[in-house]
């Protein structure tokens, strides 16, 4: 259930994002989810890829500031209140969300969550019967 | 252990009296024996009678490396060549070498100073010294050699280089003290590792390092790799050579042999003395030298002096680690900034690589500094907040050391240029 997310520190410099995607493309690694957090002089790219270990190695070899972060993916219905319900479960139990990103497609939405307490997060979501995505499924999206 | 307790632990008031008497004497001596100084003093309207106590030193003219070059080779000698028994010279990488002549008494004082150093490092007559400083015109080899002989130690005059032989003899002869440059000691450490001789077969316990600036983190690395205690020895050939100053077992600064070499700290810009404990350029006046005594020689080395008694019992003034060279000084919004101050802040923080690039610009008539630093791989976080907190921590640390705001920019690994020689770490774009 815990999935490996790539996190890459990038300077706000022309062509850096292109460079990352090019390196991954050359190795035949697919990106299935991607988001960028940014501030004035740097950004952090977070992404789910088809082969995180390989992606980590090739980026590391090219001296990118890359790391692997544990995240959890869930699937919830694309209707008003569905996400609110999930978030409620977590906040009630004192699990904070460092960051998350998601996108809806037709009837459902995939959500990637980085909680402050992974163990508790998974336990609660399982108890509440939230649809957790297997890591292997996330990589294949 | 203390070699010369009478001097090294002397009450500071008495020490000042001795220094004062010696200063008056040396000023009289150079006035009558060194035409260069007589002329300089006459230009300032000074005679030896104007120098009556230590505070009067501020009236005296400075001496720079340029003066030594202009008077190449023996123009600043105060005695005829018949009294000079040894000549040393600097490497002269930036022009003519600077030459220093020693009388017999100068050599014996130098040896006394080195005896104080080696004794402070815990060495004595039962030690075996491996002197791996270069022997020759450079002061390091012969200076350390005679000092070690004087304390009764057994001396192996290896000189520098031939690392394989260094290790063989260190192993076979059981050297206990190694004298060399700090960088060469790391080279030796790697070679010992490659040799596959077990460390426990070596008797080495103390390292005496000098002749080039080194940092606290380098000390840790040397001590770990060689499994020894590493001590700093400060010196410069214009003043004597190695042994002008030395660390004691407290390693809380470098004690200066100030009964022979009187130290002052000046502001390199205004040339005025600074308050004790303040940083500035180190200046030495010879108090006892015969061959080539210098008045207020500007070392260009930046440091601070502390006059409180050391826990080792010595009262001799303690000098901070050399922070850099006054030639490298930047003036930012009227404040003196040394690249080494920035380096020391970065070295203290394990989160950053020891590489940086400082760019100075003038924006709307205000000087602005931008510092690019690389975060160490283990410290990258994928949370923006943590990266910003890290950046703020560095900004705050720099502000407390420099008294100025610095715009910090975190950059990607290896984006700052590495160079083999002297790294270009400051770009000043101001058109002044």
Question: How would you describe this structure to a colleague?
Answer:
- The complex is a heterodimer of chains A (141) and B (432).
- Chain A is α+β, with helices and mostly antiparallel strands and 141 residues long.
- Chain A has 5 helices and 7 strands.
- In chain A, strands 1, 2, 3, 4, 5, 6 and 7 form a 7-stranded antiparallel sheet that branches.
- In chain A, a hairpin with a 3-residue loop joins strand 2 and strand 3.
- The two termini of chain A are 15 Å apart.
- The mean pLDDT of chain A is 93.
- By secondary structure, chain B is an alpha/beta fold.
- Helices cover 31% and strands 25% of the residues of chain B.
- Chain B has 11 helices and 21 strands.
- Chain B has helices at residues 5-8, 12-33, 35-43, 65-70, 104-120, 139-150, 163-173, 182-195, 216-226, 339-348, 384-402; strands spanning 84-89, 99-103, 128-131, 154-156, 177-180, 206-210, 229-236, 241-247, 254-256, 261-266, 280-286, 297-303, 305-306, 318-319, 324-325, 330-332, 335-337, 352-363, 366-375, 407-411, 426-428.
- In chain B, the strands form 5 sheets. Chain B has a 9-stranded mixed sheet, sandwiched between helices. A 4-stranded antiparallel sheet of chain B has the order 10-11-12-15.
- In chain B, strand 19, helix 11 and strand 20 form a beta-alpha-beta unit.
- The model of chain B has no long low-confidence stretch (mean pLDDT 92).
- Chains A and B meet through strand 1, strand 3 and strand 4 of A and helix 11 and strand 20 of B.
């Amino acid at each position: 259930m815990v999935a490996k997310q790539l996190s890459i520190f990038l300077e706000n410099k022309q062509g850096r994002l292109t460079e990352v995607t090019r390196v991954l493309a050359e190795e035949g690694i697919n990106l299935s989810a991607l988001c960028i957090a940014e501030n004035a002089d740097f950004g952090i790219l977070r992404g789910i890829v088809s082969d995180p270990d390989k992606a980590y190695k090739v980026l590391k070899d090219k001296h990118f500031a890359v790391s692997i972060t544990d995240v959890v993916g869930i699937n919830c219905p694309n209707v008003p209140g569905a996400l609110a319900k999930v978030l409620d479960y977590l906040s009630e139990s004192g699990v904070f969300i460092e960051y998350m990103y998601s996108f809806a497609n037709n009837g459902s939405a995939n959500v990637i969550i980085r909680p402050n307490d992974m163990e508790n997060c998974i336990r609660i979501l399982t108890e509440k019967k939230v649809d957790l995505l297997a890591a292997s499924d996330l990589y294949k999206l | 252990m203390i070699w010369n307790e009478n001097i090294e632990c002397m009450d500071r008031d008495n020490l000042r009296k001795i220094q004062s008497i010696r200063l008056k004497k040396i000023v009289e001596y150079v006035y009558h024996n060194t035409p260069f100084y007589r002329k300089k003093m006459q230009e300032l309207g000074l005679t030896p009678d104007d120098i009556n106590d230590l505070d009067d030193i501020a009236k005296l003219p400075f001496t720079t490396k340029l003066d030594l070059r202009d008077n190449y080779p023996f123009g600043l000698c105060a005695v005829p060549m018949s009294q000079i028994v040894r000549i040393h010279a600097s490497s002269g990488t930036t022009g003519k070498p600077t030459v220093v002549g020693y009388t017999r008494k100068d050599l014996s004082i130098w040896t006394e100073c080195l005896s104080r150093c080696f004794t402070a490092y815990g060495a004595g007559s039962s030690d075996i010294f491996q002197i791996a400083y270069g022997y020759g015109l450079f002061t390091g080899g012969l200076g350390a050699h005679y000092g070690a002989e004087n304390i009764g130690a057994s001396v192996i005059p290896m000189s520098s280089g031939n690392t394989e032989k260094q290790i063989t003899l260190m192993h076979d002869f059981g050297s206990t003290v190694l004298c060399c440059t700090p960088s060469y000691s790391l080279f030796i450490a790697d070679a010992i590792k490659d040799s596959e001789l077990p460390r426990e077969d070596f008797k080495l316990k103390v390292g005496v390092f000098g002749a080039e600036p080194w940092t606290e983190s380098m000390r840790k690395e040397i001590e770990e790799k060689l499994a020894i205690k590493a001590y700093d020895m400060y010196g410069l050939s214009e003043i004597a050579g190695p042994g002008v100053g030395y660390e004691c077992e407290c390693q809380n600064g470098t004690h200066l042999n100030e009964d022979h070499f009187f130290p002052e700290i000046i502001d390199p810009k205004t040339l005025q003395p600074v308050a004790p404990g303040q940083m500035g350029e180190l200046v030495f006046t010879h108090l006892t030298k015969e061959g080539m005594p210098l008045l207020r020689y500007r070392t260009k080395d930046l440091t601070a002096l502390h006059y409180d008694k050391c826990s080792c019992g010595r009262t001799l003034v303690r000098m901070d680690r050399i922070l850099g060279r006054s030639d490298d000084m930047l003036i930012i919004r009227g404040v003196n900034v040394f690249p080494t101050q920035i380096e020391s802040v970065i070295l203290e923080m394990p989160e950053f690589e020891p590489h940086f690039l400082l760019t100075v610009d003038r924006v709307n008539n205000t000087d602005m500094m931008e510092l690019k630093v690389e975060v160490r791989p283990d410290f990258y976080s994928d949370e923006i907040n943590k990266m910003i907190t890290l950046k703020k921590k560095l900004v705050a640390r720099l502000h407390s050391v420099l008294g100025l705001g610095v715009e910090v920019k975190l950059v990607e690994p290896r984006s700052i240029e590495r160079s083999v020689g002297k790294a270009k770490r400051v770009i000043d774009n101001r058109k002044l």
